[in-house]
Amino acid sequence: MHSWSSFAGSGADNFICILGKVNKDGHMYQSLKETKACVLNFPSNDIYDRCIKTIGNNQFETDEITASGLTAEAALKVNAPRIKECFLNIECEFLWEHELFEGSREAAVALKAVNICMDSERYDQSRLGRYGKNGFLFQIDQPTNPETGETTPFGPGIVEQGKPVPWITE
């Protein structure tokens, strides 16, 4: 599930997805290392409860997608499952990884998007749309106080489309 991704690139042939924190002991990392592919699945708020269940069903011998009440379907261009209930799926190939620090159990991972599938009702902002309470979710994971290290539990956020601001660079 998409939650901590960021994106960079210059056009359809060069669209890069960066996962900033992937646990090297986790199912996703192990699958990515084996297949060199994954799908970033973008859920909306109406299936958030099932998305959270994938964390509890994340044992290596369990299909966390179906065990959480979601539907796995074959991706078109990579050997990884898409989640049918997600309105946006970015099929990706592995590019590189880098430990967050020497000996870290987490790594930053770069992926190249090779196929993007999106529900047409969500693509059109005047219909269901990509933004607002029915659109993209973004997991805001335990904001940490930089002075004390104390974390604050937090849940999903939504992305609201803002008012356009002109780019004046002179």
Structure overview:
This protein has helices spanning 27-35, 48-56, 64-67, 120-123; strands spanning 5-9, 15-23, 37-42, 72-74, 81-83, 88-99, 106-118, 137-139, 156-158. It is α+β, with helices and mostly antiparallel strands and 170 residues long. It has one domain: Electron Transport, Fmn-binding Protein, Chain A (Pnp Oxidase, Chain A, Roll). The strands form 3 sheets. A 5-stranded antiparallel beta sheet has the order 1-2-7-6-3. Strands 4-5 form a two-stranded antiparallel ribbon. Strand 4 (72-74) and strand 5 (81-83) form a beta hairpin.
Short descriptors:
170 residues, alpha+beta, Pnp Oxidase, Chain A, 4 helices, flavoprotein, Flavin reductase, FMN, Split_barrel_FMN-bd
Task: Write the topology of this structure.
Elements: E1 5-9, E2 15-23, H1 27-35, E3 37-42, H2 48-56, H3 64-67, E4 72-74, E5 81-83, E6 88-99, E7 106-118, H4 120-123, E8 137-139, E9 156-158
Antiparallel strand pairs: 1-2, 2-7, 3-6, 4-5, 6-7, 8-9
Series of H and E elements: EEHEHHEEEEHEE
Sequence stretches where pLDDT stays below 50 over 5 or more residues: none
Strand-residue fraction? 25-35%
What order do the strands of the largest sheet run in, or round the barrel if closed? 1-2-7-6-3
Helix content estimate: 10-25%
Biggest sheet overview: 5 strands, antiparallel
Structural class: alpha+beta
Instruction: Please give the domain count.
Output: 1
Average of the residue pLDDT scores: 84
Shape: globular
User: With helices defined by DSSP (H or I, 4 residues minimum), what is the helix count?
Assistant: 4
Per CATH, what is the topology?
Pnp Oxidase, Chain A
Radius of gyration: 17 Å
Query: What is the CATH superfamily label?
Result: Electron Transport, Fmn-binding Protein, Chain A
CATH class: Mainly Beta
Oligomeric category: single chain
